[in-house]
């Protein structure tokens, strides 16, 4: 079921979108685990100098969507976010944050992924759960 044609290199080559704007970099794309990093800098901070919760949500949604894409049972479907929630536990002022996405449910028409984001010191910053609908390509 894992689509090994979608690699970290192929994903990291996609730079003319939100991934490039926030410098999100895929570290690992494997069966049951998607990992990516994002810098904490002027692009991802809120005015008080902390990692913006919205930037964490972008990283989480990116990881969940890629997870669903690589684990879609039917190759004729594409993932679209249906619902996402997050608990922001702690924040960061600088460095790199790393997100880890693991599936909770992989179905034919929907997936549920859990995404955890950590700072450089292994502190949990954010935990998110995302529901993804798989729709037919047009």
TrEMBL record:
Annotated organism of origin: Flammeovirga pectinis
GO CC term, one of those recorded: cytosol
GO molecular function: 1,4-dihydroxy-2-naphthoyl-CoA thioesterase activity
Pfam families (UniProt xref): 4HBT
Domain named Thioesterase: residues: 48-126
Family per similarity comment: Belongs to the thioesterase PaaI family.
NCBIfam families reported for this sequence: unchar_dom_1 (TIGR00369)
Keywords associated with the record: Hydrolase
Official protein name in the record: Hotdog fold thioesterase
Residue ranges crossing the lipid bilayer per the database entry: none
């Amino acid at each position: 079921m894992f689509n090994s044609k979608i690699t970290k290199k192929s994903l990291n080559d996609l730079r003319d979108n939100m991934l490039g704007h926030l410098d999100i970099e895929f570290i690992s794309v494997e069966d049951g685990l998607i990992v990516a990093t994002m810098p904490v800098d002027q692009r991802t901070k809120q005015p008080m100098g902390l990692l913006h919760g919205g930037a964490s949500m972008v990283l989480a949604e990116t990881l969940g969507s890629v997870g669903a894409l690589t684990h879609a049972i039917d190759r004729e479907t594409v993932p679209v976010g249906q619902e996402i929630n997050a608990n922001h536990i702690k924040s960061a002022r600088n460095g790199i944050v790393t997100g880890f996405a693991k599936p909770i449910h992989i179905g034919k028409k929907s997936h549920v992924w859990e995404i955890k984001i950590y700072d450089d010191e292994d502190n949990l910053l954010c935990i998110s759960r995302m529901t993804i609908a798989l729709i037919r390509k047009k």
